[in-house]
Amino acid sequence: MNYMSLFDADGKRVTSVPCDDDLTDEKKAALEAEGYVEIDEDEWNYYVGNKGAGDNGTGYIRKDGKPVSAPAYVPTAAEQADALATTYEAQVKELDDQIVLAMADGDDDLVTELKEEKAAALKEYQEKLEALNK
């Protein structure tokens, strides 16, 4: 069976209509006018994921009239910033916990050392965050 499929500007399949008995010549012509293209079932299987996830694990797109591996996913700046924040929040929390324990033990030298580590971690986080936003 063939399908009339619509692809977006990036080559991702948006939707498909099967070329069955219900698809009249008039309906097919209307779909073609809307940008749909006819593809065979084997090609359709790439776009719906039945032929694996492609070389980058992101599926397949249509390029130059055929299925090709979709580009690798690139996280947005916001997603990268969130991941960075999560990493540094955990690190700072651990340092805060160690500072409290050192204070309870009365180890002023360790408290000072841990506070310096925390300040360095926060500075490093700020620098990496600024680098993401450039």
Automatic annotation (TrEMBL):
Task: Please give the coiled-coil regions recorded for this protein.
Answer: 78-131
Lineage, top-rank taxon, reads: Bacteria
Q: What is this protein called?
A: Uncharacterized protein
Could you tell me the keywords of this UniProt record?
Coiled coil
